[in-house]
Amino acid sequence: MNLFFDGNYFESVFTQKAIKKPELARMWLCTWRDIDYNTRHDLAHQATTNNQAEYASLLFILNHLLQEVDRVKEITNEVLIHGDSQLVIRQMAGEYRVKEPDLRVLSADAKNLVYILGAEHKLNIRFVWIPREQNNEALGITNRIRKLPTTS
């Protein structure tokens, strides 16, 4: 099973909605694909950085897997989670340490869920980095994303 996640500003995915609701425009949005391959969008209310939004998106997937574990196990015992954040993917794969204090709790929560899914439910969770363009295409947001101006 292949699942995908990403973190973006709300306005980068939903430009027209952001124009109508400017209070949402600069909020972080978690975009992820569920086990039925539906693309979901959830606000990352606590996120203040892109990396926090990426972790929040990953946590949505892992919590979804835990809720749907019986359905998942009927299909497979291996789940590949794809993301375009090299930092998050490599931290979850154990290749990078988590140095940032604001990411330690999020990383620990994600690793705990991976442990539960593996130890208690016998699901093998692996993390795969993919380029942003492939991730956007997999999530169905290719045509909606636009480049945001950088703030100084």
Structure, described:
Strand 2 and strand 3 form a beta hairpin. This protein has one domain: Ribonuclease H-like superfamily/Ribonuclease H (Nucleotidyltransferase, domain 5). The chain is 48% helix and 20% strand. The longest helix has 19 residues. The C terminus is likely disordered. The protein is globular, with a radius of gyration of 15 Å. The chain is built from 8 helices and 5 strands, in the order βαααββααβααβα. With 152 residues, it is an alpha/beta fold.
List keywords for this structure.
single chain; 152 residues; Nucleotidyltransferase, domain 5; 8 helices
Range of helix content: 40-55%
Main sheet attributes: strand count, strand direction, barrel closure? 5 strands, mixed
Termini separation comes to: 41 Å
Number of helices: 8
* Rg measurement, Å: 15 Å
Uncertain stretches of 5 or more adjacent residues: 145-152
| CATH class (first level) name | Alpha Beta
The multimeric state of the shown protein is: single chain
Topology-level CATH name: Nucleotidyltransferase, domain 5
CATH homologous superfamily caption:
Ribonuclease H-like superfamily/Ribonuclease H
Task: Summarize it.
By secondary structure, the protein is an alpha/beta fold.
List the helices and strands and how they pair.
Layout: E1 2-9, H1 10-13, H2 15-20, H3 22-25, E2 28-33, E3 39-43, H4 50-67, H5 69-75, E4 78-83, H6 86-92, H7 101-119, E5 124-129, H8 132-139
Parallel strand pairs: 1-4, 4-5
Antiparallel strand pairs: 1-2, 2-3
Helix pairs in contact: 4-7
